[in-house]
Amino acid sequence: MPQTERIRFSVTDGFVVTVVTMLLLCGVDGTVAVFLCSLLHECAHLLAVLLCKGKVLAVRCNLGGFTIESSQVRGGYAGELFCLSAGALCNLLTGLLLVYIFAETEYIYMLAGANITVGLFNLVPCGYFDGGRMLYLCAEYFFGPEHAKSVCRTVSAVSACLVFGAGLLLFLRSGREPTVLLTTLYLSFLLGYDIILSFPGRFRRRHASA
User: What is the strand order of the sheet 56-62 is part of?
Assistant: First the structure.
């Protein structure tokens, strides 16, 4: 009888950092709303993976929130793009439905705003976001794997620098509000996530060649 492959589940220190950061920035109600949106986001990814005949290999709670790792799905690049975009599209649709149909209380508006924010941020074509992975797939399709990495790192670097510069300016003009600085650092890190991860590999290669 064949053994069923278990789904790996892990929680990193980065997830704890994310929770603490969200509590400082959004309070308890805002943090609960964001994590509900994140769960909805990952459920949409999961459904898309299953529709494309893929298998869920791992579920991780990390610096970016929740992440699902899956096997190769059917449909090639189109299938991959569908699975990657499913979470953000589900958040945006849910947010609009809450605003135009179910909006009766302040918390519903908060949930709607959190869904729209999570959806839009995940479509940003750089860094840790789904949009960054979608950009990589498109660049890989048109230019090949090596050029795709260069394209993604360039877009991520420019975006991270712009967000960091704008956030630093806002921090200085807002009376040095700590939450503004914390938000800036967090978003800049997420935008430049793939660049930061590439540094250890580059250091090891340079050290080995020395």
Answer: 8-11, 56-62, 65-70
Asked if 115 and 51 touch (Cβ cutoff 8 Å), the reply is no
State phi, psi for 119 to the nearest 5 degrees.
Answer: -65, -45
CA angle 63, 68, 74 (to 5 degrees): 145
If you write DSSP's letter for every residue of 120-183 in order, what string do you get? HHHTSSSTTSHHHHHHHHHHHHHH-HHHHHHHHHHHHHHHHHHHHHHHHHHHHHTTS-HHHHHH
In a 3-state reduction of DSSP, which class is residue 51?
Answer: helix
Torsion of CA 91, 92, 97, 100, to 10 degrees: 140
Token duo for residue 99: 């605003």
Contact between 55 and 100 under an 8 Å Cβ cutoff? The reply is no
pLDDT greater than 60 at residue 124 = yes
pTM as predicted: 0.80
d(CA 62, CA 55): 20
The mean pLDDT value for 72-82 works out to 89
